[in-house]
Amino acid sequence: KNFVQKMAQLIEGNDPDKTGCKGLNKNLRCYVEYANEVGWAYWADYCSDKAKQEGLASGRHFAAMQKARVASWFREVVGETNERYKIIHCIQSSNAYHSEIELDIACKTFGPTLKPSGIPDFLGVTSYISNDMEQFVFEKINFADKSKRKDELKKFFEEFERRSLTGANAVSGVDFTSGISLAGKTMSDKYALPLIIYEGGCGMGLNGRKCEKDRKIVPSNTPGANCNQLSKLAEKCGGTANYVDFIRAAHADARMAKIFGICFGLTKAHGVQSLSQFGDVQDVNGNISWGYWACLNDLKQPLYKAHRYRFWIDWYKKQTRNK
Fold this sequence. Notes:
six-stranded parallel β-sheet; 9 strands; 11 helices; three-stranded antiparallel β-sheet; alpha/beta
């Protein structure tokens, strides 16, 4: 509590440690989250241990209660109705079951009992787009023959656009629908929390375990199926290196900005007003096993080649004009 409240004082400009810090620019809004992805991922063991100490049912229960506590502690300093500060409760966007457990605690059974209230202002979700296009490449694209790359990329983007426009609902790892995951939409409606995207970008993860037979993705119990990471399954279907190279080419293509325009444009239909692109720079020739989430290949990349970067600049400008 001491750390949270001193942080709040520091941001507010009260300078608790007498360092001369003037605090956050008063014209800026501050979004407050306890920590990144508490309750799962890197924090899972910590939350489980704390839950045992407090006699709670699971790490998710501890995470939800701690998020509510932090919200209340922060509001003690800045004021419960201070519009400059918005508390974010982030959920695991593909996991409706555990998200509902958390939000029931934060919004109904525990958060409202705290003074000031621990109820969040926003629901935080991710929006990594893919719509299983990595699987489409595996099954339908001739990625081995680079002489056909132009035609195959055209086929790829036509299908990606079709799936995006129809809102195809595909969940694979961190990749969701053309905009917001079903869990995000459902929880936002149920708990009357507006949405904010705390991470977003392009997925097409290659690490997911899939099963194939005759170059078709099939259920794991299919007789004769081969199961492995998708990129490794590609070895006998044209080569892993060729498969990954095609995915790289798709990530670097100017048409990806159009796909972003469709998918992240659709987030606005769900009331999203702010979105955080995951990162600024990622070498497209580096590791893309989890997708290519950044918007620049390097800091010196010419803007005419930085298709995603130009898209995000335009997206944010429009958001600012619409406020």
